Amino acid sequence: MYPASIDRQQDRPTRFILLLPLLFILSGTLIRFLAFRYAQPDNDWTNYFGAMCRWDCGWYVKMAQTGYDPFPVPGRINAGNWAFFPFYPMLVGLIGKLIPIPTIVLASLLSIVTAYAAVVAAWPLLGRNIRAYTLYAAFILSGPLSMYFTTFFTEVMFVLLTTLAFVYLSRSNYLGAAAITALLSATRIVGVFASLAIGVQALMDWRRDTGSWKGWLGGLLSQPRLVLAIFISPLGLFVYIAFLNYWIGDGLAFSHVQRAWGRQVGNPLTYLWTGLTSWPTVPWQLVSNSQILALSAVVGLAMTGVMAWRRQWPAVIFALLAIVIPLAAGLASMMRFMAAMAPITITAATLLARWRWLFIVSLVGLLAGSWFATLAWFGGNVALV
Amino acid sequence: MRLSERSPLTLGAYALAAILALFELAVLWQGLHPHVSDNYRAYYLDRSTTCLPQPVIGAYTVGTELDFKSGGDDTRELRPCGWDGPAGDGMHSIGETSLLRFELGQPQALTLMLELTGSTLPGPPTQTVVISANDTPIGTVEVTPDQTERFTFAIPADAIGADGTLVVKLDYPDAISPGPRTANTYWRSVKLTAGSLTPAI
User: Fold this and answer.
1) What is the number of domains present in chain A?
2) Closest Cα in chain B, distance from residue A178 (Å)
């Protein structure tokens, strides 16, 4: 990941930059649609968006339609939908009041638009490198994990907001980053860690401007924009806590309800090691699902290491916490979490774009992988959950 | 913009930050002091039970023998929590406690029959099941893995509520974890295949 330019004109996307992702929207939709027809030949083609909506997607559709569960949960289950953060599903629900089309169709179209915006917004962070940008656009819109960004998951909004937060942050625009982080903290729990990235960026700026650490605390507190930004940035999380206090009497219900899913807090390293050493039991299988999930976390940590080597400390602190905290609750959904970590995937794109041959191999791999991963998605592969 | 400038904008920014800080502190305090029902607290907060009772009607006619296997009787309205199924081999217990709720209309002395099979997961040689009626202990049985047995328990009339409500609780102190690092909400013990309440002789 590279810092955005202070001069916004330099970062302004050209027509080519705006058009290229449209090509991947087309290719991605075509690949996923053909995989849908191949996997479910008896299903009507008009059910494409509905068929793509699997796992947590169903929860989001219901949330957009009926909002948050009361307690006891009407479906007489222990798993209330308080676990899911509100910003994206409620946004879809709100737009759904204005545009009365089926929720999953509306959400899928909105996700594609959001994914497009996320790709274009990442242009400066990709070092304005065409090859890196192409790979990133292919990954988000037409890659093996593009279903997360083109159906109804909060991941797509998380990617857009994270990207914007780091664009603002690299220009030391604390208030802009804070406003985006406020929304980010209402999108997924780990979004609130971008607040710490703002603090780290401010520290780095102080060090750069003064040449020393002396008087840093007073120096930071004497910046009213920064102080205001620090308290604005976690606002989305606090508003959600306030809502849950009012709605069911437990502001931390999003955390407590994890018990219904059997999430066990443990040592992240133990979870990682157990996953890596869970060898496949099926003879022809190269890697087990647990290994795939553990390897996703390892790749995430490796990219965080690359960012540390590049001294991108705000992104490092954000990525590290956004990997380790979910890892402490197990490996479930780890691939989805890593796919939605913009600093990690952007860094990976910059590395894979370094050599032309690697770029071509990666691009072909992403597009071909989309077909197989979509089939695995329809097949219910738990590594993709 | 710096604090030293003391412009209205600067002071306004600090004032707004202070208001937000107070709001966030107040929300956090509320979040740390939840106002919830006893059932909610026991399951989600204290984690003192794995069985969160869901509202059920509990309609039941004394003397009816219920089939808890798939394709048998619809027993959803008798099972507040702690059951997974039905499956072909019965209703699987899930967690460390299961409940059955019966609305009988009036208190009366009864005989409870439960047909149970022990879980075949690797674990102790038998599954201990402690049974109570409206929190009055009525018996403890040992259930053998993969063996189906019928057990009967006497329920005195005074153990049943004045409104005729009977909640039968099955506690599983030997419940088995089906895998490493599996939460106790997913532990297994027995399978319930049949049950009935008949008037005490």
Assistant:
1) 1
2) 12
Domain residues for the domain of A215 are 8-262+364-384
The tens digit of pLDDT for each residue in A154-174 reads 999 999 999 999 999 999 999
**Percent with pLDDT over 90 in chain A:** 94
Tens digit of pLDDT for each residue in B60-87? 999 999 999 999 999 999 999 999 989 9
Nearest neighbour of A256 by CB, restricted to B17, B23, B45? B45
Of chain B, the end-to-end C-alpha distance in Å amounts to 88
Residue-wise burial string across A171-196, b where 16 or more C-beta atoms lie within 10 A, e elsewhere: bbbbbbbbbbbbbbbbbbbbbbbbbb
Residue A84 lies in a domain: yes
Query: Going by C-beta distance under 8 Å and a sequence separation of 6 or more, which residues neighbour residue B115?
Result: B148, B149, B150, B151, B192, B193, B194, B195
Say if the Cβ atoms of A262 and B182 lie within 8 Å.
yes
Residue in A closest to B21 by C-alpha: A231
| Domain assignment present for A288 | no
Residue A318 in this model has a pLDDT that exceeds 80: yes
Query: Which CATH architecture group holds B51-199?
Result: Sandwich (2.60)
Q: Is A242 in contact with B27 (Cβ distance < 8 A)? A: yes
Task: Identify whether A79 is part of a domain.
Answer: yes
